[in-house]
Amino acid sequence: MTGNGANSIELLRFGQMSSRPRSAAKRSRIIDIAMHHFAENGYHAARVGDMAAALGIAKGSIFQHFGSKDGLFFEVYKRAVRSFPKYLDAPAEVRSVGFFQVLQYWLVRTEHLLREDWIPYRISLLGNYGTDLALKREINRFLMAEDPYGTVAFVRFGLERSELRDDMDVEMIVSILDWTIERFQDALLTAELDPGLFRRQGELPEKKEARIQQFLSILQRAIGAADPVSVRPHPALRKVSGGNAAAKARG
Amino acid sequence: MTGNGANSIELLRFGQMSSRPRSAAKRSRIIDIAMHHFAENGYHAARVGDMAAALGIAKGSIFQHFGSKDGLFFEVYKRAVRSFPKYLDAPAEVRSVGFFQVLQYWLVRTEHLLREDWIPYRISLLGNYGTDLALKREINRFLMAEDPYGTVAFVRFGLERSELRDDMDVEMIVSILDWTIERFQDALLTAELDPGLFRRQGELPEKKEARIQQFLSILQRAIGAADPVSVRPHPALRKVSGGNAAAKARG
DNA sequence: ATGCTACGGTGACTTGAGGTCATTGATGAC
DNA sequence: GTCATCAATGACCTCAAGTCACCGTAGCAT
Q1: Are the Cβ atoms of B201 and A140 closer than 8 angstroms?
Q2: Distance from CA of A241 to the nearest CA of B (A)
Q3: ipTM
Q4: Is A76 part of a structural domain of the chain?
């Protein structure tokens, strides 16, 4: 490489340098290419050697940075998952309608997000189902520690608005949400991405809409407050509901 | 091996012989050992060579029978999953109480079943989360085709007794049940078998009971009929519109 | 400028597990 | 007793993960 000096100056301009400037930049490039390879070929079929070749570097370099293929994938997974929006990133006008409106917003949009950018989604699928139990344990630790979708904050949001049952542990609601949303999304999305990977749900687009509404109504009954219309007028956090999502979903 | 003749005679007594008697018996023995190896070491760490050694046969034999490690694992998985009880295998007196009683019965007992025999459970965990997307696709095809837990029949049972909402597709209820039960069981069980693999739920035994009750109540609200007390023995059992479930949910 | 040091990059090498196949040996039919 | 069939064998192949001794360069001290 000839332009090293220029290179680090350029890096400086992006403010990417910490103590190990070139290291960080290179790691990032590796993760980027690796993400494509994993997404396109799956975990096992993706070869570290190919990634190195695509980057024009030696295979050993990758191992020096990430220790192992698992380690590399873990970094890829974290980046992919962090690139997803959090629940409360929904537009303010949607948030103001309420908890279940936010859910609906994301369920409907997931498909569009997927089409724009299927790679991170595929990575998360691999991390959830297609690698190895040891790695999955790390992944779950990460998900619990970082809560990248902001599920906990989202549930608190719903609780503050009295839209969720307050007679259960927060942990329980969070788990239920995480589980069902994840599976439902997988079922919606993999129909096209990986046909046959999950119990098929609504192959037809218009059916898909109906499924989402059904699913939301189920969730609302499951974890929603008993009477979502009568929001107790708490002086401090009085957010008058714009109605309950399930009622709207029907109409 | 010396007792081949005696061996096949013994097999005859069990009526296990089809056109390929020794083949079937050997396949079975291989699957048995393989199940132990997979369960104890995980999918990747389990070595086909070790299994062959443990069986006192050549590695090539195993490949001749199953084609590949994936193929072998698939057979192991099928056997493991088929060894689990179906929902409606619950005792008649439990069944007669109703759908959710059956669910509770199994949730409470799962732990005991696990302790008696953790190996098939571990295999199903591997199949669900720890192998490879291509294999997982096969597994899901199998689960859909065979419905080894009898979820569909179980849901029909609940519908016939008017204990489940009849305003949703059966498919949807089945999916919800499959997803949540699987994840809930995983969360309950892996706390000890694979610490850190799932969001922890009830580390303490007495908490575990409470979790099960909470979980059941959630499920009941989600997919249960609006008024579970009034079980109407409808002769024609179809389309008894139960009114608005959410409104009555608080009882 | 010059030598020194530390560190990231290199690629040939090792390891080791999945998978193959020509050969062998046993089984059952005639 | 002979032969055809087919499963069992184990030496062999392939191929990708992972290692390591060496090297070149950057940054520093003199």
Answers
A1: no
A2: 17
A3: 0.82
A4: no
